[in-house]
Structures are given as C-alpha cells and as structure tokens.
Amino acid sequence: MAIVSATRPHPIFLAGRWVESPDVLEVANPADPSTPAGATYHATPEQYEEAVQAAVRAFEITRHLPAYERGAILRSISAGIRERREELGHLLALEAGKPIRDALVEVDRASLTFRLGAEEAERMYGETIPLDLMPSSKGRVGITRRFPVGPVAAISPFNFPLNLAAHKVAPAIAAGCSVVLKPPSKDPLVMLTIGEIIEKSGAPEGSVSILPMTRELGDRMVADDRFKLLTFTGSPAVGWAMKAKAGKKRVVLELGGNAGVIVDRSADLDWAVRRILVGAFSYAGQVCISVQRIFVHADVMDAFLDRFIAGARGLKLGDPTDPATDLGPMVDEKAARRTQDWVDEAVAMGGRVLLGGKADGTFFPPTVLTNTPVEAKVCSSEAFAPLVVVFPFTDFPDAVRQVNRSFFGLQTGVFTNDLTNAWHAFNETEVGGVIVNDIPTYRIDHMPYGGVKDSGLGREGLRWSIEDMTELRIMVLAQPG
Q: What is the pLDDT, as a whole number, of residue 7?
C-alpha cells in the first residue's frame, strides 16, 4: 500500500506496485491556486512500457477468471470506497473544486458503479440459436458467448475524476480485461487513492495500472496496438483526433455537448425551475450534459425567467469544502477567462445579460443570457461553464428543431405534461437520451449513456460498456447423420 504524507507526492500505481518518477506533478487547488492540493508523478516512458507489458501478461489471467472472482473483486472495491467515503469526498472537493455535497454524491455513485459491475459480471448471458432454417442446416444449433477483447486503454476527464474513471475500470474488470488508466492531470489523486483500494481487492497483479501521463505519453498509449480498446471521455477535438490515431482497436468516445432543455407551457413550472437550476449550475456547469440552452414556451417565458433568476441569485458561490456552498470555482483561471470572453462576445452580438457575467479569479457566478444570436459561442459551442442562454418558442416541433440545431447530441430534457409532445421529442430529437420532466443532466449509472454527432461514439453504462469490451463468439453444434 502507498505510504503518503502531506508533504510527499503520492506514488503512482504501476501494475500492482507503488512507484515514483523524476517528473513531479503538482496538483492545484482550484479554489485557492496559491495552495496546492497535493502532488504525484507523471509516469516515465519506461514505466508506461512496464505497465503495458504487465497488462498484456495479466490478460492471460483475467480472461480466464470465473464470474464469482470478478464479482468478488468488484464488490471489494465498492465496499472499500464506501468505507473511505468522507476521505474521498474531501479529496474531490480539494483537488477538483467540487462542492462537498456533490463530491460525496460522486463517491456514492462510484461505489454503485463498481457494485453494478459485479452484478453485470455475473450475468454475461449468451444465447442458444436454432440454425435449422433450411434442409442443409438440419441438426445444427448455435451457442453464443462473450469473450474479453484484451487490454484496455482508458483516459478519464477532470470533471468527474472518480466516477467517470470508474465507468472504465469497473466494466474492464467485469469483462475480464486488464486496464491501464490515464487519470486527469488536474485531479489525479482521487483515482490513485482508489488504487490503494484496488490493491487490496484481489485483482490479479498487473491487471490495473493508474498512471498520470504527459499528453505525449498519452498519445503513445492511444496508438499502441497492444491495447484492443480505447475508451476516452473528454473534449470533442481531442477525442476525434484520438480516434484517427487509434489504428484498428475499438474506440468508445464520450465527448461534449451543449445540452438543450425545453419547457413546454404544460410543464410544472416550479419543478422545471428547481431542476434546471441544478442542471445549469452544478459543479459550475463543468458537466458535458449541463443545461446550456433553455427553450421556453412564450406563454410562460416571463414567469419562468422571474423564478429562475430569483433561484440563481440565491445560489451560494464559495469554498467547495463548505457544505453550504452551491457553486465552487471553475477548474482554473483560464477556464474562467474563456467564459468571460464568450459572454463578452455574446453581448457584443446583441445578447443581454440578465444575471452574472463577470469572472472573479477562478470563480464565475451563475449567468443568464437572452436575445443571443445562435452564432455566438455560448449557443453554438460547449460552454462548460455556469451559464445558460434562454430562447422563447411558440411551436413545440420548432423547439425540437432548435435543440437539434447543434453539432452535439448527448442528452436533452423536456418538461411537458403533454404525452404527444413527449413522444415527438423522443422520436425527433437527435440525441442519445431524452429525459422527460427532468434535466438532460440526469444520469444513473446502469443506464445506457452516450451521444450522437460530435458528442461521441458508443455507449457507457456497465452493461453497454461490457458489450464494447467483449467479442461475441458463436459455437455451432452439428448432430452427425
């Protein structure tokens, strides 16, 4: 087990061993950039090579592990996360700037994700298929089974550094794959702490490595043909570039969005406001399914804005370790400055700021804009910030068309009590998920999750991730005679 102190960088988890390197990685505290959250190391090229070779060797063990052993490993990790809940939550608040209430929810979700992985490992069912559909195939039957694809290369993002990494590691273990994880350089400490839990879980030596890396070494991992699947969550530009470099391996991409939400005139307005406040401003909007565009029926537009602005004005911005805080900092000052530039551009193009709109170091307040041209970056690109743009509509199908007027298609929310409108949204919205009477930011960890268009490729959620991490194989049994 790693021995860590407040002054010593956290070692990295290399194929079951804790190691150091000459390349120290300092981890900033977004709420107080002058005080580091901690430190660890970037892996060296030699350490990366050792991890990959270990993953290749370990796969010869993991691919033969019975379901009960894979399930036991995953349940042990889930229990270990629960036991260290407060510690992990505090670490998330410190290094990611995530309000402690949200951080603890992420810890709970990660524990659930590993438990769900155990359950899915134990129900990887196949099928029996009758093949005697013509005389020449008489006496034949097919049996299908899923087999692990091989070592997995996994790259996870800063905004959910624990649970989105869990959505790569847990299904890999469940499927019988070995995995090398590159955690985010901005907040790698929480997954390195999970490495301490994995070390005790009974996972075969070398089957899991957690290695912070430079971008250059990460590019090497993307192109490495010893990995049979690449799973990446992050920005669209980086993700699609990785796909081009990935060679023949399978690729799963969970990328960005600029999620739209529709508030129909039949909606429960108080519920819609309450939920959209969460969807727009949780974790300072740094969520790929954060509400960014709000389409409100003209008949309820004024009432919605009055309640929504009042609610946003009441949110507390401040120290993420304070349980009363609603919004913490953005990930760094660069992100806050970019958000300021985008708001300024929207105003220059005729947009109107109803609330917020001014950065203060790494902090950006809840921001509401109207009258903004759709060409402005706050409408057309992924803001990844605590801002929303509000548009009126009079025709529900036109609101759906406006939601679709985007390069992205991750999830959308539709607040309506008109069943016809709910079905229309489900049938016509170009997204991976339609959430009726809730925000597009809703996700629970066993549902299929992913997008279309520039938002990605493939689906996560334990069952669906395992499908990507396994190959379907059929055995045909023929009865002689």
A: 65
Residues 234, 348: one domain?
Answer: no
Q: How deeply is 24 buried, as exposed, middle or buried, from its count of CB atoms within 10 A (0-12, 13-18, 19+)?
A: exposed
In a domain, residue 5? The reply is no
**Percent of the chain scored above 90 by pLDDT?**
98
> pLDDT tens digits for 77-120?
999 999 999 999 999 999 999 999 999 999 999 999 999 999 99
Tell me the CATH number at 197.
3.40.605.10
Tell me if residue 177 is catalytic.
no
- Domain extent at residue 162: 12-255+456-473
Neighbouring residues of 370: CB distance < 8 A, sequence distance ≥ 6: 305, 351, 352, 354, 389, 390, 391
Report residue 460's pLDDT band, with 50, 70 and 90 as the boundaries: very high
Same domain, 409 and 462: no
Q: How confident is the model at residue 33 (pLDDT cuts 50, 70, 90)?
A: confident
Query: Considering the domain boundaries, does residue 4 fall inside one?
Result: no
Residue among 288, 379, 382, 460 flagged as catalytic: 288
Decide if 126 is inside a domain: yes
- pTM, entire model: 0.95
Our answer to whether residue 460 is catalytic in this structure is no
Does residue 327 contact residue 284 with C-beta atoms inside 8 Å? yes
Cross-sheet strand order for the sheet of 12-14: 17-19, 12-14, 208-210, 179-182, 152-155, 229-233, 250-254, 456-457
Residue 481 lies in a domain: no
Note whether 206 and 16 are within 8 A (CB).
Answer: yes
Whether residue 59 sits in one domain with residue 23: yes
Residue 202 pLDDT > 90, yes or no?
Answer: yes
From 254, 382, 460, 467, active-site residue? 254
Q: Are 120 and 464 spatial neighbours (Cβ–Cβ below 8 Å)?
A: no
- For residues 198 and 175, state if they share a domain: yes
If one counts the domains in the chain, the total is: 2
Same domain for 177 and 65, yes or no, is yes
Q: Would you state the pLDDT for residue 1?
A: 46
Model confidence at 430: pLDDT above 80: yes
Q: Do 110 and 226 fall into the same domain?
A: yes
Task: Judge whether residue 50 has pLDDT over 70.
Answer: yes
Is a pLDDT exceeding 70 seen at residue 200? yes
Which one-letter DSSP state was computed for residue 43?
P
